[in-house]
């Protein structure tokens, strides 16, 4: 359902009483309606679907998620994950 | 909320829509360069015309006439808009036919050109198209030697339609055809893919978007000549136009009865093409090119051919993208960035922007 | 941060995969609800990289596929009128109604246009005041706010030659219907991230609790999908069933309040037929009383068109993983990707189409088979 892609707001203007933005999708520029994210600012990223910005992308949260992925193996290597280790043991035994 | 639901629907009866593919009338997909186009040719045209040469269904026909080997091809152009970033219908009409000839290793020599004009179109526009066509012919080192003009009533055409046909000479010792692909061949693409299709889409009504890339429309005779200097033993050349790289690779795999395996991460896709495809839900492998070729080269010549391509301006971005394999004959398989695989199938009709 | 490439990193994907492989101890069947996620799974070959015990059942989240035959027939009728410009998202053009599709209406002279956004259709209406411009308003909660805004704008700007043919559907009632299906074997859901970007997550805890299923809000890039699977497998292995958000950069618990308010104003909840499933109570939206004059069904008096869904293939059973595609009598004979009977054969991501393609591949790269219900 919902092919929605991240884009970066380049500029914002009011057109016929509607808040519109030029949004950059990796070098492709498209007019996008900001009525649902009225406080979105130039330089911020949003999820855009059929010409509408629907949700602001939160950089801090994205970084946190990536750090979590980064640390997945590390945690196991450093401390061992007893639950995962227990789960893996029967496989090894077979 | 839960109480308002009566009998739970039984999903075992679930059916979903099936596209009507056995069309009683021609639809746009028949011109899309995919499965529907191929069926029209195979089921309607080929039986009607017969003939051994036609049945090879190459980009151009290889003929022997009076002891001389000729390549012969024709192509029609119904592009809208007539002028787009990086070119026009006139450039396409020359380069499309020239490249079809060049893909058999021929040196393109002469073109014919038919104009089908819509009543009411401005003569200024026709002149501009003709100028572009003339300039493109000079750039491709071919001569337009015969032509025709017809006018259709207003509303029965899109301003200007063009048809070109061309002939060229196939040099001694050159035998390039889709059927010649063999396992072990290295698959090389001459540069960034999807550029023409994205440039055209960017100005199409209802889809318009801003992008700084222009059509890659170009004649490929010089590039192929450079490749033939590296080795005359090129197995297959194809210009991945409608249906993109995916259609070209599928046609070769089917014609030769071989498998093709590509590394997705090795395929050169410019960021703008990636961006436009992400936005519209398209796959770059299916987007049209007008100045690129894909080559199947025997492994021992691959390095030399790649180096030769990179020495030519139209092949500067050339890259090895995969190889021809014995497994899965007539199929194209891509290894994804994550290490999985996916089948790259022949498109059915036109690729449409999707929301899903 | 571009929010795309970072979430496609093969190195991090391997970490997630390692973790999933290390965690799973027995077979689990989870459904990704959204067609966009199915697309991503096939596009990146993710299903082949997961442990054999993890079965992904491709859900009903394709608005194109679930739009009922009757609505398609209404669209075809409206689009055939000489005074109408019929605008649609590209994917709807190839969906057949009774005997024909929008491509054929176009081939027969109908003015059918593909647009990127419903606002493009509104602009066409402004530019063609002597034409009736109709937009085909399909989609889930993600697409409903753009369509709602377009109708709101038409009303505000006094553009009277614009109308919307509405067939909007909602995810939570579909999840409920799936769980209530007598043969259901879904044990967890990857919820559709972009639906939740709009609606938030408040609708899900009750469903997770009532049906004892983990519901993990999941994004669309490869790492997002793997993270959704990782968290789902974790919950299943631990015997938990909570709502978890694996896509926090784009999903807040409250969703998008402005969009939800607009939905409240422009639409009202209604029963909706899903193609091939039948009517699911409260599973859709229609234009509210205030906007009824922009309803194409009323404007073109096509309300009387009723179409019975023909009995066809066994895609329902395939969708639930009850049978393998090749166990359907029609598979590969009368039903092929070229002439498909059901949705599962229509798109490349469909279980039957994928099976058809990958079966030809054979060998170690063959599409992972799912085990039938035990």
Number of strands of chain A: 5
CATH topology of the largest domain in chain A: SH3 type barrels
- In this structure, how is the largest beta sheet of chain C organized? 6 strands, mixed
The CATH homologous superfamily of the largest domain in chain C is named HypD, alpha/beta domain 2
Q: Domain count of chain C, please report it.
A: 2
The shape of chain C is globular
Query: Distance between the terminal alpha carbons of chain C, to the nearest Å?
Result: 45 Å
- Residue share in helix of chain C: 25-40%
Pfam families (chain A): HupF_HypC (PF01455)
InterPro entries (chain A): Hydgase_assmbl_chp_CS, Hydrogenase_HupF/HypC
Family (chain A): Belongs to the HupF/HypC family.
Protein name (chain A): HypC/HybG/HupF family hydrogenase formation chaperone
Tags for this entry?
heterotrimer, B: 356 residues, alpha+beta, 60s Ribosomal Protein L30, Chain: A, Phosphoribosyl-aminoimidazole Synthetase, Chain A, domain 2, 2 domains, 7-stranded mixed sheet, 5-stranded mixed sheet, 8 helices, 15 strands, 28% helix, globular, C: 374 residues, alpha/beta, Rossmann fold, 6-stranded mixed sheet, 17 helices, 11 strands, disordered C terminus, HypD_2_sf (chain C)
Question: How is this fold's topology laid out?
Answer:
The complex is a heterotrimer of chains A (about 90), B (about 350) and C (about 375).
Chain A: E1 5-15, E2 18-25, E3 28-33, E4 45-49, E5 52-56, H1 59-79, H2 82-93
Antiparallel strand pairs in A: 1-2, 1-4, 2-3, 4-5
Chain B: H1 35-49, E1 61-65, E2 68-77, E3 83-84, E4 87-88, H2 89-102, E5 107-118, H3 123-139, E6 143-152, E7 160-169, E8 186-189, H4 195-201, E9 210-211, H5 221-230, E10 236-238, H6 244-256, E11 259-263, H7 271-280, E12 294-297, H8 299-310, E13 319-325, E14 332-335, E15 341-343
Parallel strand pairs in B: 5-6, 11-14
Antiparallel strand pairs in B: 1-2, 2-7, 3-4, 5-7, 8-12, 8-13, 10-12, 11-13, 14-15
Chain C: H1 10-23, E1 28-34, H2 35-43, H3 46-49, E2 54-61, H4 63-66, H5 69-79, E3 84-88, H6 102-107, E4 111-114, H7 118-127, E5 132-139, H8 144-157, E6 162-169, H9 171-180, E7 188-192, H10 193-199, H11 204-211, E8 215-218, H12 222-238, E9 243-245, H13 257-266, E10 267-274, E11 278-287, H14 296-299, H15 315-319, H16 343-346, H17 351-361
Parallel strand pairs in C: 1-2, 1-7, 3-4, 3-5, 5-6, 7-8, 8-9
Antiparallel strand pairs in C: 6-11, 10-11
Helix pairs in contact in C: 1-12, 8-13
């Amino acid at each position: 359902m919902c092919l929605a892609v991240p884009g970066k707001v380049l500029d914002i203007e009011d057109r016929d009483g509607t808040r519109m933005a030029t949004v950059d999708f990796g070098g492709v520029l498209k007019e996008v309606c900001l009525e649902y994210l009225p406080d979105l600012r130039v330089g911020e990223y949003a999820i855009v679907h059929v010409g509408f910005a629907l949700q602001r992308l939160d950089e801090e949260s994205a970084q946190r998620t990536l750090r979590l992925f980064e640390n997945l193996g590390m945690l196991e290597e450093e401390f061992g994950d007893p639950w995962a280790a227990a789960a893996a043991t029967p496989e090894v035994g077979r | 909320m839960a109480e308002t639901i009566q009998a739970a629907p039984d999903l075992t009866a679930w059916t979903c829509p099936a596209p009507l593919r056995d069309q009683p009338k021609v639809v746009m997909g028949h011109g899309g360069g995919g499965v529907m186009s191929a069926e029209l040719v195979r089921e309607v045209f080929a039986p009607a015309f017969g003939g051994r040469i036609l049945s090879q269904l190459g980009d151009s026909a290889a003929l022997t006439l009076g002891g001389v080997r000729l390549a012969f091809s024709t192509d029609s152009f119904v592009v809208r808009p007539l002028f787009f970033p990086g070119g026009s219908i006139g450039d396409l009409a020359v380069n499309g036919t020239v490249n079809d000839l060049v893909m058999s290793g021929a040196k393109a020599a002469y073109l014919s050109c038919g104009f089908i004009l819509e009543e009411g179109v401005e003569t200024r526009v026709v002149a501009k198209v003709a100028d572009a066509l003339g300039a493109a012919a000079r750039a491709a080192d071919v001569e337009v030697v015969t032509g025709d003009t017809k006018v259709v009533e207003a509303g029965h055409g899109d301003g200007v339609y063009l048809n070109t046909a061309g002939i060229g000479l196939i040099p001694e010792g050159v035998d390039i055809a889709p059927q010649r692909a063999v396992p072990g061949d290295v698959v090389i693409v001459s540069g960034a893919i999807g550029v023409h299709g994205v440039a055209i889409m960017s100005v199409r009504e209802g889809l318009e978007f801003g992008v700084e890339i222009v059509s890659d429309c170009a004649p490929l005779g010089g590039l192929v000549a450079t490749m033939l200097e590296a080795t005359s033993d090129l197995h297959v050349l194809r210009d991945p136009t409608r249906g993109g790289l995916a259609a070209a690779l599928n046609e070769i795999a089917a014609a030769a009865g071989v498998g093709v395996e590509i590394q997705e991460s090795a395929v050169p896709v410019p960021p703008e093409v990636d961006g436009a495809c992400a936005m519209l839900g398209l796959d770059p492998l299916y987007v049209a090119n007008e100045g690129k070729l894909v080559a199947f080269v025997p492994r021992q010549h691959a390095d030399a051919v790649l180096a030769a391509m990179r020495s030519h301006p139209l092949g500067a971005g050339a890259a090895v993208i995969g190889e021809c394999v014995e497994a899965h004959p007539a199929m194209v398989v891509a290894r994804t960035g994550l290490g999985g695989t996916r089948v790259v199938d022949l498109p059915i009709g036109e690729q449409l922007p999707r929301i899903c | 941060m571009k929010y795309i490439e970072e979430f496609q990193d093969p190195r991090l994907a391997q970490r997630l995969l390692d973790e999933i492989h290390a965690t799973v101890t027995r077979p689990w069947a989870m459904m990704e609800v959204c067609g966009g996620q199915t697309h991503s799974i096939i596009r990146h070959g993710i299903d082949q990289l997961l442990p054999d015990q993890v079965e992904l059942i491709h859900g009903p989240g394709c608005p194109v596929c679930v739009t009922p035959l009757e609505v398609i027939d209404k669209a075809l009728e409206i689009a055939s009128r000489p005074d109408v410009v019929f605008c649609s998202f590209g994917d709807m053009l190839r969906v057949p109604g009774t005997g024909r599709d929008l491509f054929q209406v176009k081939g027969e002279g109908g003015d059918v246009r593909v647009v990127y956004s419903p606002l493009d259709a509104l602009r066409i209406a402004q530019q063609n005041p002597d034409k009736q411009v109709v937009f085909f308003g399909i989609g889930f909660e993600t697409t409903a706010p753009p369509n709602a805004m377009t109708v709101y704008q038409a009303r505000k700007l006094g553009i009277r030659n614009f109308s919307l043919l509405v067939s909007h559907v909602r995810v939570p009632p579909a999840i409920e219907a799936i769980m209530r299906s007598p043969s259901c074997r879904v044990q967890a859901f990857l919820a559709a991230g972009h639906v939740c970007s709009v609606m938030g997550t408040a609708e899900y805890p009750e469903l997770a609790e009532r049906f004892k299923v983990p519901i993990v809000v999941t994004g669309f890039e490869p790492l997002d999908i793997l993270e959704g699977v990782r968290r789902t497998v974790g919950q299943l292995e631990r015997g938990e069933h909570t709502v978890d958000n694996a896509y926090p950069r784009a999903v807040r618990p409250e969703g998008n309040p402005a969009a939800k308010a607009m939905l409240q104003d422009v639409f009202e909840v209604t029963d909706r037929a899903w193609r091939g499933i039948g009517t699911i109570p409260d599973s859709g939206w229609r234009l509210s009383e205030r906007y009824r004059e922009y309803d194409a069904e009323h404007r073109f008096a096509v309300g009387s068109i009723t179409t019975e869904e023909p009995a066809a293939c066994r895609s329902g059973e395939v969708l639930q993983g009850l049978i393998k595609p090749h166990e359907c009598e029609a598979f590969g004979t009368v039903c092929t990707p070229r002439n498909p009977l059901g949705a599962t054969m229509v798109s490349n991501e469909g279980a039957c189409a994928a099976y058809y393609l990958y079966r030809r591949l054979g060998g170690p790269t063959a599409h992972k088979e799912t085990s039938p219900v035990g």
